[in-house]
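Budget justification, computational time. The allocation requested in the original proposal was used primarily to generate structure tokens for proteins on the priority list. As evidence of use, we reproduce two of the resulting records. The first is shown immediately below.
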Amino acid sequence: MPPPRAPRPLGTVTRGTTNPNRLRRMDRWITATHGAELRRAADPVAVDLGYGAAPWTAVELLHRLRTVAPHARVVGVEIDPARVAAAEPYARAGLVFRHGGFEVPVSPPPSLIRAANVLRQYDEDEVAAVWRRLCARLAPASGHSRGGLLVEGTCDEIGRRHVWVALGPEGPRTVTLATRLGSLDRPSDLAERLPKALIHRNVPGEPVHAFLRDFDRAWAAAAPYASYGARQRWMRAVRDLTADWPVTDGPARWRQGEVTVRWEALAPRG
């Protein structure tokens, strides 16, 4: 009697578009905000979910995580078996590649799942179920830990503009906008990189639309700071935003061209 077939991975094949250094902004944020959790974990496993046609982002993730958590391991998970086979020559100590999807076939439960540019092709009404499934696979919270982290978002082809949602085992926590400031005309330029849960909500009456409107106004008001550089203008605009929006980070992150806001403030209505 033949052995039973392995269950079919959950999800659909993405376009596979990838480039070296594309996810540097997301990785930089992860190491800064989640590094302590990774160091505390007995076996810090990170998953690069849907790494694409080449394994550059998984290789880079291992290198960046080990700057803050030397024992971190990375598992690249791809739903296309041909991509897994193509990635195998890049496997090394601490980095392996596996065939799979949203079921996340790794053990122990990961301390981090990074899913960049994966949900872009899905319908908005599919996102919540995928989030719940992935959050359920994270390492659980405990007395000394908030649990694992899911970072899901979208960026442009070379990583200049990026927006992501950070989720824990309990659900969404924050939304982060990150950009190469020299490429920015106004903050609402980032609207085209909103993750699937928000991109169709950038319309009047929705919180994310109001946030980007207020950000553009703060950016315009901060125009005199442009003579000191785009970074100073961004920092001033974000500081003004804090009067009306629950910004969770501070100047150290703003200087990187980032701003993070509580999810509840931008969550879609209804």
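The second record produced under the same allocation is shown here.
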Amino acid sequence: MRRKAGLVLLAFAVFFTALSPLLRWYAFPRLAEVPANQYQTMVLEARNATLLDYGTMTSRTVPEVIVVQTLRGNVEAAEKIEKTAGRDVVVWDGLSYVQGPDGAMVSRIPERYIFDAHSQEPVHATGEMVDGDPVHRDGIEFKWPFLTRKRDYEYFDAQARVTRPIHYEGTQNFRGVKVYYFEQTIPWTKVPFPKVMPVKGITPESVAKTGTTRWYTTVRRFWVEPLTGAPVYGEEIHKEELRGGTLLGGRDRVTVFAGHVKMREDYIASTVALVRHNRLLILLLTSLLPWGFLVLGAALLSLSLYLEARGRRPDDPESTAVMESEPVSA
């Protein structure tokens, strides 16, 4: 019985020891993925921002500008693309909606972002666009890869339609969560006018006829939880200008919008809570379970060897009683 128990323990030791690297290097890359039906909304605000009054074409300081960013997973579109892409795909239909202190729209930019569900690498397919214009993304957007590394990444800027490096600037602690801090600077760049303008009767085409152009620059900052690759906080120092043309009445440039855009406090709390939950799931697959199975396998192996050694010991010799010889009668 002791030898049978040792063999059973040895089998379990081999199983759990083999399961440890399989879970980390085979199962995790296939199980960790962004859900195709994910929906999230983020609200950011810029206090004491500069905003253009299109009625007078002058810039003024306003108490607050609100930026609402929405990402909605399009499952139907993802399933169609997967048929030809041959891999798991996520399609995010995004909308960046900016409104002034009176609730009026300042800008409205839709986009479609298509990427690999596991690696977050962009997938190029029909429908990839920003504000209705087809684009060919290189680099990430919105989310970093699982197990983010301490290095620079290529990040796509939707306003300028360009990809530029976003630099790793160090490791920090944000609300009790270990994060990697990344920063990207987009220098002054000429960008297209939004398809939907904030004033009725004004179109991108009518503005283009005046010779006026739109320029943009930003400093983009993200604090990213490295296991999930999810930003727990983000902000931008954002500036837009109109330059030249007859629309400005002889002026060289006019500020359209300038402000330090930061994530609103209530959305910071909910984002941190969500990332903490998802971080635990990734930690289970990459560290806790693989190391736990490895330790368990080693313990079972030791126990099976111990039982085998016990089974091989010679049995204790049986004590033999010395029998007195009976006298033999003559």
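A brief technical remark on that second record: Residues 28 and 160 are 35 Å apart (CA to CA).
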